[in-house]
Amino acid sequence: MIFSETNLGGAYVIEPQFIQDERGFFARVWCKREMGELGLSTNLAQSNISFNKYRGTLRGMHRQIEPAAEVKLVRCTKGAIYDVIVDLRPDSPTHMQWFGVELTEQNHKMLYVPAGFAHGYQTLEDNSEVFYQVSEFYAPQYERGARYNDPAFGIVWPLEVASVSDKDGSWPDYLPAGM
Questions:
Q1: Mean pLDDT by 10-residue block, N- to C-terminus, for the chain (179 residues)?
Q2: Which Pfam families does the protein's record reference (predicted)?
């Protein structure tokens, strides 16, 4: 696996290394040893999939807070998405900055999302499916969110938002701790 750290410390774009022959290819998409050598979380509590019928659908920005803060490993298994993370760690030098990457079924890239980040994505194609592994069990009492269009972040989405849930569209403006 090839790990490329993003401009947000601790977040990585991960690309599989393919072994190809006339049948197709083989590639590793998760390895406890390789992740651990980089100091990344190797805890796996759940695997989830999300199917999205329409291009322009937006899901996010989601996170869980302590004691249930999640690390995520996100991959698009069908179609294409624009995956976005926002660093909400209060003591981070990149606090409130965002990073986006295109994940597609063709490029096989994954995004490693550290705890303390908000995560969301927009579908770039109809019938897109997202597979993600998380380090903690879902705990609704620790769920928080940030609005996808919160001016505090200035996220630039590639498409007009065609669909967003009432819940995701109504998160309040983000205010850093102490404000």
A1: 96 95 92 95 96 97 95 98 97 96 97 97 98 96 94 96 94 72
A2: dTDP_sugar_isom
The pTM of the whole model exceeds 0.70: yes
CATH of 43-168, one of 2.40.40.10, 2.40.50.140, 3.30.2420.10, 2.60.120.10: 2.60.120.10
Phi, psi of 39 (to 5 degrees): 80, 20
How many Cβ atoms are within 10 Å of 166's Cβ, its own excluded?
Answer: 6
Catalytic residue chosen out of the listed positions 82, 112, 121, 132: 132
132 is catalytic: yes
To 10 degrees, the CA torsion angle through 141, 112, 104, 33? -120
Distance CA 139, CA 153 (A): 25
